[in-house]
Amino acid sequence: MSTHAATGAIDHHHDHSTNTGIPNKKLFMWAFLASDCMFFAALISTHVIYRLHPTPNEPDVLGLFSLELTSFSTFILLMSSLLMALAVNTCQKGNVGATRKMLLGTIIFGLIFLACQVYEFKHFVHLGLTLNSSMFGSTFYTLTGTHGVHVAIGVLWLVLMYIRTFKPADGSPWVLKSFVHLIVFAVAIVAIMKVILGGVHAIQELGVTSAGLSSFVSHELTAMIASAAALAGLVFLGRQRKAVEFGEANAVDVEGMGLYWHFVDIIWIVIFTVVYLLEYL
After folding, report:
1. What does the pLDDT look like over 123-150, one tens digit per residue?
2. Dist. CA 111–CA 150, nearest whole Å
3. Distance CA 207, CA 213 (A)
4. What string of DSSP letters covers 157-200?
5. One domain for residues 236 and 254
6. What is the rounded CA–CA span in Å between residue 265 and residue 268?
7. Which of 39, 99, 152, 242 is most buried (most C-beta within 10 Å)?
8. From CA 168, how far away is CA 160, in angstroms rounded?
9. 91 and 154 fall within a common domain
């Protein structure tokens, strides 16, 4: 199932490099991230300017935020960067099996972050903070929502890369199986998101107590069963013993995806500091 390259220097002869010696795909990703960095800089600076010069009817921000929840989701996103780095490292060594595990871990951590953000948005809307309620609501949802879209795109990219690792080396048909794989992944993502949202809601409302656990199980039992079934399906589809057309030659693809994921994490650190932590000073 996996091909292990000899340890030592990494062979980059598969990469089509520019005159700078940097592979084309990596150079393109750096250029894209540079433009995206300016885009986020505009959103962040807009939010900061309006916070320094608040408009009338601004909400009680400290009464809205849950620093514990946001800190937890930040920690999860940072840990996903570690798994992404490990995925790049294992792919460079040709260890496809380990690469798959790291990609799956990154996907799950990304889903946890997204579920926390969805819960936060629902909670804020319930408290009256909407996109049109105030200038803070407009800048907050635009900034954090744009970042959330980036994370969601990253998760989709990770899923497609994970499925790509199963392409047979002998050229046998795999389109149908990859489509089934994608469907099972979609079911797993929806069910896991439902379970995480239920867990976050139970903890936020009832705390880590027996009552909170009972409420969580009673409300999310169906989603838990669906999650278990979908994960079992992923395990079944992942039981492949044939040689695959994936290995060190694809390291630049995984590395490009890793650059994107690390960029999204760094941007969140800035957002977490500027939007959340500075409110407590």
Report:
1. 999 988 999 888 999 999 999 999 999 9
2. 12
3. 9
4. HHHHHHHHTT-BTT----HHHHHHHHHHHHHHHHHHHHHHHHHH
5. no
6. 5
7. 99
8. 15
9. yes
